[in-house]
Amino acid sequence: MPTWICDGCGVEHADTEVRPPENSCVFTSEAVSIEERGDLPPHGTWTTLKLLAEQPHQTEYVNHGRGVHSLRRTPRFGIGHRSYLVQTAAGNMLWDAPSYLDDSIVGLVTALGGVAAIASSHPHMFGAQLSWSKAFGGVPVYVNVLDREWVPVADPVIEYWDVEMEPLPGVRLIHVGGHMRGSAVALTPDGTLLVGDSISGGLAKNWVSFQRMYPKHLPLSAAVVRRIVERLDAYDYDRLYTLGGDEIDQDAKEVVHRSADAHIRHVSGEFDHLT
């Protein structure tokens, strides 16, 4: 049976012989408000893993050093995010799994040591995580418990976690919330922070941003930004990579603090007299 992929978000849904109804992606559900389900625009038409593999495309591959590698499909599909592979002595973790599989990208990942665990920053980044798990022998897929409602397909390989967990020795998944209730970051053994959309880049160099809804540019509150930064203060990190490809290659913790301080002061009204 075909594996159906939403062409709006790139998240895989159930394998069925019959094409799913239009606009039936888990993220178009009207059961809860737009504020709760996230900020993706209306979408829900469908393609399949097989069709995606047959389309002309390439995988952009970057070795960031220190055991961190990134992968992104071109031309871009769905959200067009960058996925990361973290190498460790105990195996590799795939972070924010790609929304597609083909012989080329599976061969590339295999040559880098394969996949021993899969995790995501938030539900918009589930991608084809179950298909990736299957391709590497049914490795565990880690999902924050607050994101359980957004899992389109239940599967025994999915393991739910709460505040913090270690999918591989030295790799930490840390819940921070903000963008979505279960939003998380991953900290690699070498001190690289993979943040998904929990923290994002900015047009300014050496700057990050904190947003609730990215397409609408709705900022997080001062209290939530403060919570995220304080949560991360317990860890040492000097590099930061976002799902969009933004990179802070040194002094990342200082950049996060400086950016958060400015964000908090602005949304708290300190500079309203200048507007």
Protein model, in words:
The structure is a single chain. This protein has one domain (3-31, 60-274): Ribonuclease Z/Hydroxyacylglutathione hydrolase-like (Metallo-beta-lactamase, Chain A, 4-Layer Sandwich). Helix 5 runs antiparallel to helix 6 (252-267). It is globular and about 60 Å long. 19% of the residues lie in helices and 30% in strands. By secondary structure, it is α+β, with helices and mostly antiparallel strands. The protein has helices at residues 34-37, 49-54, 103-111, 129-135, 222-232, 252-267; strands at 3-6, 12-15, 46-48, 58-65, 68-74, 83-88, 91-95, 117-119, 141-144, 158-161, 164-168, 171-175, 184-187, 192-196, 200-201, 208-209, 211-213, 218-219, 239-242, 247-248. A seven-stranded mixed beta sheet has the order 4-5-6-7-8-9-10. Strands 11-12-13-14-19-20 form a six-stranded mixed beta sheet, covered by helices on one side. The chain has six helices and 20 strands.
Protein topology:
Layout: E1 3-6, E2 12-15, H1 34-37, E3 46-48, H2 49-54, E4 58-65, E5 68-74, E6 83-88, E7 91-95, H3 103-111, E8 117-119, H4 129-135, E9 141-144, E10 158-161, E11 164-168, E12 171-175, E13 184-187, E14 192-196, E15 200-201, E16 208-209, E17 211-213, E18 218-219, H5 222-232, E19 239-242, E20 247-248, H6 252-267
Parallel strand pairs: 7-8, 8-9, 9-10, 14-19
Antiparallel strand pairs: 1-2, 1-3, 4-5, 5-6, 6-7, 11-12, 12-13, 13-14, 15-16, 17-18, 19-20
